């Protein structure tokens, strides 16, 4: 595990203003901004940022008062408090919030230094300090175009780790197949997925559902979707988790271009099923149904 960076850096004025405005609607004296936005706002200024991840201490009694304060300040929430796990033993209470032009994942969680799975997502902004920490070397990872796992690959759900890996590869236009370190991570996670068993729905069925969602959403987000799908095929990233899609991507460049043209995650899977031989499509359809990720599912069947 990489050692945390203890050196604080003063945020630019416009980012200090963002934190101060956010503090006024949260009504809390202390919080942390984490995830992808802190690095993107500092280092990739041309990249539009719409999503913010905010961390507050895990205190179930504080959730509803915080939500009430947000609503009183004009923010909208879906009203649902979701129970989530970032690591196998790190619980989170999460609320979706819309504020100004941002969508906020409001997370009530402890041990913020354990949240990043890969070094490139490890910049945090702190309030009221109005500074930032590059805990595990995110700026270096961005410059080197190489991701490294912060806590190793053996201590977390392999589906969730692979989800992050394929999403980050799409977001930062990184190759999984051509980078030896990335390829070794893909192979290790595929090996773990092959033997993975879960004791609860979150780390089993829900993790598989999230994986299907990540693959489709990442394709839509990629700078060059056909090249991204070709890279997934060459790396073998889906060989164990979605073998039918892996075989389609490997065997049919034309199918990669057709999948690259879809505009919704549901459309991605509808198109994938239509491009496969019947036996393969049946297997993939069964896999999607088991994960409740079928593009044909209704709210009642999810």
Structural summary, described in words:
The chain is an alpha+beta fold and 302 residues long. It has 2 domains: 9-140, 2-Layer Sandwich (Beta Polymerase, domain 2), CATH 3.30.460; 153-290, no CATH class. It contains 12 helices and 9 strands. Strands 1, 2, 3, 4, 5, 6, 7, 8 and 9 form a 9-stranded mixed sheet that branches. The radius of gyration is 20 Å and the shape is globular. The chain starts with 8 loop residues before the first strand and ends in a 12-residue tail after the last helix. 37% of the residues are buried.
Helix content bin: 40-55%
Individual helix count: 12
Any idea how many domains? 2
Question: What's the β-strand tally?
Answer: 9
- Net shape: globular
Strand content: 15-25%
In this structure, how is the largest beta sheet organized? 9 strands, mixed
Please tell me how large the radius of gyration is: 20 Å
Q: How far apart are the first and last residues' alpha carbons, in Å?
A: 37 Å
| Mean pLDDT figure | 92
SSE series: EHEHEHEEEEEEHHHHHHHHH
Low-confidence stretches: 298-302
- Category by helix and strand content: alpha+beta
